[in-house]
Amino acid sequence: MEIKRVITVTVLNEHGVLSRISGLFAGRGYNIESLTVAPIFDTNLSRITITTQGDKKVLEQILKQLHKLIPVLKVLEDEQIIEQESVLVKFSNKESLSELSTIFASYNGKLLEVNEKYAIFMACDCHMRINSLLQAIQIYKPKDITRSGISAIEVN
């Protein structure tokens, strides 16, 4: 049975770390669904957030392999983190902006920009709610959609 997992990895912010982590996944045939990387404020560390899926055995193997990598300092998974995802959506400005504003507001979103051709909205919520938002707006025929990938932070 396939299980989706969000894993955060705290690493030393040095050259080649991301390459080693992505190589770990590629070398074993594991898929990365989303990947975000950012430095941790006021440190020489970075946080890598990886969304992947597999059966329980595959996920255990991924975690064990991540712990073995030298620049990795900490590995956390779903129950130890809070996750969010952002989305930017472009519509023709001929669509009902007031209706779209109402929909986006219910998903922690808002209108960002309007020009003579397009309106761009953003939302930030959990992955499942972003999926729901994208289903709800399909009738408005979005011109473009960009998702950030999941960002996560440790709860404790």
Automatic annotation (TrEMBL):
Write down the InterPro entries for this protein, in alphabetical order: Acetalactate_synth_ssu (IPR004789), Acetolactate_synth/TF_NikR_C (IPR027271), Acetolactate_synth_ssu_C (IPR019455), ACT-like_dom_sf (IPR045865), ACT_dom (IPR002912), AHAS_ACT (IPR039557), AHAS_small-like_ACT (IPR054480)
Gene Ontology terms, cellular component aspect? cytosol
Has UniProt tagged this entry with the keyword Metal-binding? no
Recite the UniProt keywords alphabetically.
Answer: Amino-acid biosynthesis, Branched-chain amino acid biosynthesis, Transferase
Gene3D superfamilies according to UniProt: 3.30.70.260, ACT-like. Chain A, domain 2
User: Which Gene Ontology terms describe the biological processes this protein takes part in?
Assistant: isoleucine biosynthetic process; L-valine biosynthetic process
Name the job this protein performs: Catalyzes the conversion of 2 pyruvate molecules into acetolactate in the first common step of the biosynthetic pathway of the branched-amino acids such as leucine, isoleucine, and valine.
User: What's the protein called, per UniProt?
Assistant: Acetolactate synthase small subunit
Q: Which organism is it from?
A: Helicobacter canadensis MIT 98-5491
